[in-house]
Design a protein that fits this description.
The chain is α/β, with parallel strands linked by helices. The chain has helices at residues 10-21, 39-51, 73-77, 88-94, 122-131, 137-143, 155-166, 193-197, 217-220, 233-244, 248-257, 262-270, 276-290, 292-303, 307-330, 343-358, 361-379, 384-400, 403-407; strands at 28-33, 101-104, 175-180, 203-209, 224-228. α10 (233-244) crosses α11. Bound molecules: zinc ion (ZN).
Amino acid sequence: MQFKDVIGLEETKKQLIGMFKKNRLSHALLFLGKEGSGALPLALAFAQYINCDKVNGRSANSSAVSLFGETTEDDETNNEDDSCGVCLSCQKNSKLIHPDVHYSYPVVNRTDKKAPISTEFIVEWREFIANQPYGNSYDWLQYIKAENKQGNITVKECEEISKKMILKSFEAEYKFLIMWMPEMLGKEGNKLLKLIEEPPPNTVFLLVAENDQFILPTILSRTQLIKIPNPNKKDIAEALIQKKVIEVGLAKQIAAMCEQNYREALQQTEFAGDNWEVTLRDWLNTIVKTGPAAQVKWVEDISKIGREKQKQFLKYFNKLLEHGIRLRTMGDLAMDSSLHENENQHSINDFAGRFNRLCDISQQQAIINELDLASYFIERNANPKILFLSLTIKLYHIISNKSVILVS
Ligand SMILES: [Zn+2]
């Protein structure tokens, strides 16, 4: 992972590089960032940067060292604001196989074996980071098929960490332990206190968390806090266009709706081919204008698109309603100034505004509740035709007759 792979956060990247260059690196750092901020990829990029041969003034390509000391092309392009991405150290780091960079993350019992350790899941971990670097702990636990089991950083894992970190580093100057979700480390984490407080030389503990309230206070107090903001809407939109190759208007629309959460943005992008605004307009038209025959046709169509898309559509409608309520209560404040020039945001505001005239807040709240309930049933394999037909009828009553809400 390189800094350039982390969406936005230019200030934070500069701050980290500055800390490293000025030797102000604490040996225990806490990267605290909300879901979708990119705190984990940033931590991976930071470790790769610190260990990069080129950043440290060693040859970038150790397998082809120039005998005559010629300047290679790479040397000219390197500006040290990022790891080189090509040296041996970078290659190993990007594959998560560097012998001096260790990872701890929540895991579950695979069988009835007691106290699993993170490295038992290292293959999955590498795949997960390659595929979903912005994933959250839920995504990860799904990925390792934890089902309903609670993820955990176990006492045995703490012992493993102690063993690993006492070893001298093999190749790099710095040895890292990157611990993701220290929130899932229970009291057994106290075993690590001494190590974190007086670590062996050139050892860096990099904790990556979403919520500091759930971290052991004893550990928290021994770390240097680095707050990781969420990327801004402009950076998210640009990343979506570049990495996901979606069109500008749609990228801006998603960036406006994802609450600066890049994970959420990616999820919405998965269904980017679908123009939910049109689907929703059609639906509402059948409800308030065109009537039962059109409703049945619409329900037929939505029944065929599959559960994931149906959920995504309901989510879109929900977000729009929430946005409408925000517009109603906060007025112009709800419209982020950076979005004013965005045509799509205009159209979202316009649509939400018109919906506001159609329904009052209690009606909108009633619709939100029905949509949540519908998503819940879709997840449990409800028959989509029956579900959307009954939802259509409920919406009709909610929109046309307020008294029905009071009864239901
Ligand atoms: Zn490098």
